[in-house]
């Protein structure tokens, strides 16, 4: 160990700096969360008869089904599942944008997430992020 590592004042200064950095990160996260509306996601079907809302944790909080949609019972379940998938993708995109904003240039969060997406979702991801 070097003398620098044994200096209690230096260790205390480092701990205080780590605490300040952590508090800044939490503050930025809270601000970004509010700015980006990451608290919940809501998507509506093209015809407006189905609606899915995710909570701030990305879990399905509500599913809205219009009377008209009930008439197409055979296609109702697949349509709801597709809408849930779309909502989860939008949630993922928002969380990715927040993480990239928090990490800055230190890590390519967008690139990492993009690399894990199925091909059909990459196109949408690219369009939404101007890639």
Automatic annotation (TrEMBL):
One of its GO terms (molecular function) is DNA binding. InterPro entries: YbaB-like_sf (IPR036894), YbaB/EbfC (IPR004401). It comes from the Bacteria. This is DNA-binding protein YbaB. Keywords: DNA-binding. SUPFAM superfamilies: YbaB-like.
């Amino acid at each position: 160990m070097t003398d620098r590592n044994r200096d209690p004042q230096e260790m205390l200064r480092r701990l205080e700096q780590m605490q300040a950095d952590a508090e800044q990160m939490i503050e930025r996260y809270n601000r970004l969360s509010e700015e980006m509306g990451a608290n919940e996601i809501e998507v509506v079907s093209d015809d407006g008869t189905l609606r899915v809302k995710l909570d701030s944790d990305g879990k399905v909080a509500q599913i809205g089904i219009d009377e008209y949609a009930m008439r197409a019972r055979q296609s109702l379940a697949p349509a709801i599942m597709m809408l849930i998938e779309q909502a989860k993708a939008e949630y993922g995109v928002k969380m990715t944008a927040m993480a990239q904003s928090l990490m800055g240039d230190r890590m390519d969060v967008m690139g990492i997430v993009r690399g894990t997406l199925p091909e059909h979702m990459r196109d949408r991801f690219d369009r939404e992020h101007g890639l």
